[in-house]
Every structure is written in C-alpha cells, then in structure tokens.
Amino acid sequence: MPGPRKELEKYWESDEFKAKSEKNKKNRAANTGGCVHRGGRITFAEHRRRMEVELGRPCEYPEVFKKIQHDEEKGWVGKRAANTYNEFERLKECQESDASISDSALWLQVVGGKNKRGRVYGLGTQAGLLNSNGTQCANTSGEIALLKKQLEEQKKFYEDRFEKVVESLQVREEEFRAREQRREEEFRAREERMDQK
Fold first, then answer.
1. For each of the chain's 197 residues, which pLDDT tens digit applies?
2. How far apart are CA 44 and CA 38, in angstroms?
3. Predicted TM-score of the model (pTM)
4. DSSP state letters, 8-58
5. How many CB atoms lie within 10 A of CB 129?
6. Residue 153 to residue 150: CA distance in whole angstroms
7. Cα–Cα distance, 128 to 139 (Å, whole number)
8. Secondary element (H or E) of residue 76
C-alpha cells in the first residue's frame, strides 16, 4: 500500500504536473504577473492607514503604492511598478488643469481598471473599495473624519444662513406691521376728521 509521500512523488513526476510547474514558473517571472512589493505581511490598507496617521491627512492610492513599491536606495521592485508609476505621473501632469479627476481615478485609468477577478494592480484588497468611475469610497478613519468635518462645516454654514434669513424675515414682518399700523392710524385719523366736518 503506497503512502501519501509515494503518491506525491508519482504526481510530481507526471507530465501534467511538470507542465503546470513550467507554466507557473513563467507566470512568476513575467513582469505582468503578480504584484511584488516590499510591504511585508502588512496589507495595503494597513500601510495606507499608518501613512494617514503619520501624515495627518488622507492618502491616495498612488502615494501608498509608491511607498511599498519603491525604495530610495534600491529603486523600484520591478519594471512594471516603475513603468506604471511613471505613466501615472506623466498623466497627472497632463491632468493638472482638471482637478475633478482624483489620483485614484487616474490610477485606475493607468492600470487598465479592474481585471476579470475585480482586482486592480498595486492596490491589494483596496480594489473592492473603488467605485466603477474610479472614485474611492470613504474607507479609512482619516477620510471619514474629514468627511464628518466637511459635513459639520456645511451644516453650520446653512444653519447660520437659515438664521439670517429668519432674522431678515422677522425684521420685514415688523416693518410691515409697523406700516400697517401707521396706515390704520392715518385711516382712523381721516375718518375722525371727516366725522368732525
């Protein structure tokens, strides 16, 4: 009775396994394959969260990509990373006049959008947080805090504006009542004069 080790050795010697092994070897060596990075076991999302805490502001995807794909001393981890980021920078310069396009939307354009599996090159699990138009959903505490702050500012602006409108209406109503009262007094005075004649 052959043991599991013998069965595995038999499988490893088969033509089917050798063909798969060769194919996978080529895929790993290709620049268009997976995403090599220097981020270790830390997820893209965690790198992004840490950067936002460190910098005190929300970070766009390309900024995090550069941090985990590029080393000041060693350079880029691979040609694909370098080419992708350089193309992003080139397009960003061309788009400087159009502030409506976010860096994340531009990144999605550079990498060709989501692949068949719904993944975006260089973003790890964050690809699921991109909307179809390339805008990102608020997903970090920094972004959520920023959105809350903006919402509070807008709320205060509209409350102040509403208060001013109410005050203005009250002033107009008082002026209207004062005018009506004067007219009524003038009308009574005329009536009294006419009655006296």
1. 467 888 888 888 999 999 998 888 877 666 454 555 666 778 878 888 899 889 988 888 888 888 888 888 888 888 888 898 999 888 888 877 666 677 777 888 888 877 777 777 777 666 666 655 455 554 556 667 777 888 888 899 999 999 999 999 999 999 999 999 999 999 998 888 888 87
2. 11
3. 0.48
4. HHHHHHSHHHHHHHHHHHHHHHSTTSS---S-TTS-HHHHHHHHHHHHTS-
5. 17
6. 5
7. 11
8. strand 75-76
Residue 71, H or E segment: strand 70-71
CA distance 104 to 82: 17
∠ Cα 139 145 147 (to 5°): 80
Tracing tokens 């080393």 back to the chain, one arrives at 71
Phi first, then psi, for residue 59 (nearest 5°) are: -115, 140
Residue 32 near residue 80 (C-beta atoms within 8 A)? yes
Q: Which residues contact 78 (CB under 8 A, 6 or more apart)?
A: 31, 36
Domain ranges of the chain: 31-139, 140-197
Specify the residue for token string 């702050």: 149
Chain center to CA of 11: 47
Q: Report the alpha-carbon distance of residue 94 to residue 87 in Å, rounded.
A: 11
Note the maximum CA span of the chain: 136
